[in-house]
C-alpha cells in the first residue's frame, strides 16, 4: 500500500496502547469472509456486512484508526473495503451537490488515497458556488471539456499535505482538488505562498481591510477577499472566474466615455459596482483596482446550469473616463449565416437576460435577432426580422442617443461602426454611412438634428457632468500632492485625466459660446472605442481618409479579437489578463500624452 500523503508524526508518537485499542474497536465491524469448515466449502458464502460511514470517517481523520483498518485488510476482503469507501465518497459528493459533476476515476484504487479524499471532501465546505464555475470551464473546453470530472490519484496527491489543506480556506480546498480539470493550477510554493496560475494569490483577512474597503461588507471566511494580479477580488472564486473572462469568442466590444455618452458611462459603472445578483445571474466576478479606483465585472449570462449547452458572459471594465463592455460566447456559429444570425442563441440570451441593459452595454449592435428572411438579396434592405426585445431596445437606443452629446472633437462619420472585438462581424446597424462632409448618418440615418435650444441645454448638462468629474479629480489630486504621491503611476494617470477634462471643458465652452441654432449637429448612435477617449480629436482629424483606413484598422482589431478568442486553453486566461493590464496602462499613458497636447490647444484657443 502507498504511504499516506498526510503525515502525522506527532499524533503517531502520542498514540498509546489505549488509543490503539480504541482504534481497533472502531474497525471491529470490518467486513471479512466468514470462517468455513470442510463441510461449508460447497455452500455459497453470505455477503460481508458493509463498512460503516463512521468507521470510514474516523479512518480518514485519525491515523491510529487508519492503521488499525489497514491491518485488518487481507487479499480476500480488500476489494470489498475499497468498494465500501468508494460508495461512501459517492454519498458525500451527492450530499455536496456534486452528482454528475465529479466522479471517481477507475485508476483511483489506493485505500490511503481514497481515505484522504474522504477527508478532503468532508473539509471542503459547500460547493454550490463552485459547481457553476466548473460548468463554465467545461463549456470553454478547459481540462478536456467534459462532465463529470473524473478524479484520479494525481488529483488527490496534488492537494498536498494535511497541514496545507487545513491551512487553506474552503474555496481553495475545493480548487486544489479540481484545478487540473478547470485549467487553473494552484500550488503552495517553497516560501509558503499561494500561487494561482503561477501568480501570487494573497488572502486578505477581514482585519486587514480598511473600513471603507468596498469588499468589507459581506466578507466570507470560507471564500475570502483576495489580492491577485494587482487587483482586489471579492472572493477566491471571483479570481478563478476572472481567469476565464476571455474564454470563448468575442462577439462584440463597445466602449463609451464620460464625455461622449455620460448616461451610458454611468450605467456601466453602476453595473460594475452594484451587489449581485444582476439580471438574476449569480455567477459573477467582481474586481477592484484600488490604484485606479476602477471596477471590472464578469457576469455569466448562460452556461452555469445543467441544461445549458454553451456559455456566454459579459465583461465590463470601468475606469475614468472610459467604460467598456465585451460579450463572449462559446456558441458555434451557424453556417451560411451573417451578422447576428451567426449566433442566434447568444443574441436571444442577451436580450432575455439583460433586457434594456443590452442597449446600454452594446447599443444596437445586437438588435438584429433573427437571420434575413427568404428572398433577401443580402443587401440588408429588406426581409430582416428582429425579436420583440431587440426591436424595443433599438428604439430606446435611438431615442436616448438622439439626446446624447457628440463625441469630443469628432463628427458622427469619424467613428467606425465596426469594432475590432467583433469576431463574428456582426453589423452595428447604425444607419447609413456618413457623407463626405461628415454630417450624414446619425441615429437611424434619418438626417441630422438641428442645433436647437434643446441641443444647447444638452451641452450645458454635459458640461455640468464634466465639471463634477473635474471637482472630484481635483480633490484626489490635492490629497495626492499633499501626501507627495504625485510621482506615482496614479499621479501621472490623474494628471492626464485632469488635462483631458480641462481640454473637454474648454471645447464645450467654445461650442456653447458659438452656438447657432441653424448649424446641424450629427449625433452618433453609439460611440465605438477607438484607442482612448483622448484619441477622438485625432479620429476627427483623419475623418476624410476614413474610407481608406477603415479596412486596415478593422483587420488589426480583428487580429486582437482572434487572439482573445484563442484563450480557451489552460493558460489563456493568464495571457489575456496580462494583455488587458497592458492595454489599460497604455490607455492611461495615451491619455496623459494627449493631455499635454490638450494643454497647448487650450493656450491656442
From TrEMBL:
Biased composition (Basic and acidic residues): 579-591
Biased composition (Gly residues): 427-450
Bias type Low complexity, positions: 411-426
Superkingdom of origin: Eukaryota
Coiled-coil region list: none
Region (Disordered): 23-63, 411-451, 541-605
UniProt protein name: Uncharacterized protein
Organism of derivation: Vitrella brassicaformis (strain CCMP3155)
